[in-house]
Design brief:
With 145 residues, the chain is mainly alpha-helical. It folds into two domains: 98 residues; 27 residues. Helix 1 runs antiparallel to helix 2. Keywords: Membrane, Transmembrane, Transmembrane helix. It comes from Pseudanabaena yagii GIHE-NHR1. This is DUF342 domain-containing protein.
Length: 145
């Protein structure tokens, strides 16, 4: 009868191990997917920054030709800054969205890397065996001394 219960305990532990392995595999796939997405977003971010820089560099060149004829003040927008190219404005907005998504991905990658449930069994085994070791040490010391 004890042999049957031993097999059922073994089957239960084997099933728990399979479930734990599936969770680890799912987490691994999620991490890989997030890392790929992070790399793609960083590449897009760099591309947009270079486009913004090109637009910013192109703007003064156009106005430098008109400087030779007359000195003019640049028109100011409502907020007191120079008017921004519409493409540059949309690129800044997209860049902000990419930055937000990158922050979300970083948070997802950092979360669930270490959880109590993954260390719970190991923790209690350490507590159990350290406790047994201390008890055995006290017994041996009292017997020897």
């Amino acid at each position: 009868m004890t042999e049957i219960s031993d097999w059922s305990d073994l089957e239960i532990q084997l099933q728990e191990t399979r479930e734990f392995l599936e969770k680890i595999e799912q987490r691994l796939h999620q991490v890989r997917r997030d890392l790929r997405e992070k790399q793609e977003l960083e590449a897009q971010q760099e591309q947009m920054r270079s486009q913004i820089q090109e637009i910013a560099d192109a703007s003064p060149r156009n106005s430098s030709n008109s400087r030779n004829s007359k000195i003019r003040r640049k028109p100011k927008s409502q907020n007191g800054r120079s008017p921004v190219h519409p493409l540059q404005e949309s690129l800044h907005q997209q860049l902000e969205e990419i930055n937000n998504r990158l922050e979300q991905i970083e948070a997802e990658l950092e979360s669930r890397l270490i959880s109590w449930s993954s260390f719970r069994e190991i923790f209690w085994q350490v507590v159990r065996f350290v406790g047994i070791g201390i008890v055995i040490g006290v017994i041996l010391r009292s017997c020897a001394g």
